[in-house]
Design a protein that fits this description.
15% strand; 34% helix; 4-stranded parallel β-sheet; single chain; globular; 122 residues
């Protein structure tokens, strides 16, 4: 599991600055080059109401990361549950899976920054 900061500015689905993604590349490349099965967690923006989820979807970050790595980055629009568990369990050596924005957990005053035990169990 790698908790990284990919909180990048996005406008109309286009990443405006990639420097936070770039900052994590060395670590990510080391993990996958050594055969690690990498699960990437990150947050993006602030989520206080359901409408915030659309503009803070982290999928464009997963696509940019794939482009920079030159390999597929699997994306799952989940932050917990059976679909996520299945995606993690199906990873092979050297593969990367990125979860949906962990700040989706903030909805209804459930701050992801409180380090949920369930999230940590993955």
């Amino acid at each position: 599991l790698l908790r990284t900061v990919c909180n990048v500015p996005i406008s109309n689905g286009v990443i405006q600055s990639e420097k936070r993604i770039d900052a994590s590349l060395k670590t990510i490349k080391k993990i996958i080059s050594e055969g690690g099965k990498l699960v990437v967690f990150s947050h993006l923006g602030r989520i206080s109401k359901e409408e915030d989820k659309v503009k803070n979807n982290i999928e464009p970050v997963a696509r940019k990361l794939a482009e920079k790595l030159g390999q597929e980055v699997k994306f799952i629009s989940q932050t917990r549950g059976p679909k996520l568990e299945k995606a993690i369990n199906s990873l092979r050596a050297g593969e990367v899976l990125m979860l949906q924005n962990t700040r989706y957990e903030d909805l209804n005053n459930k701050a992801e920054s409180k380090n949920s035990e369930e999230l940590g169990s993955y």
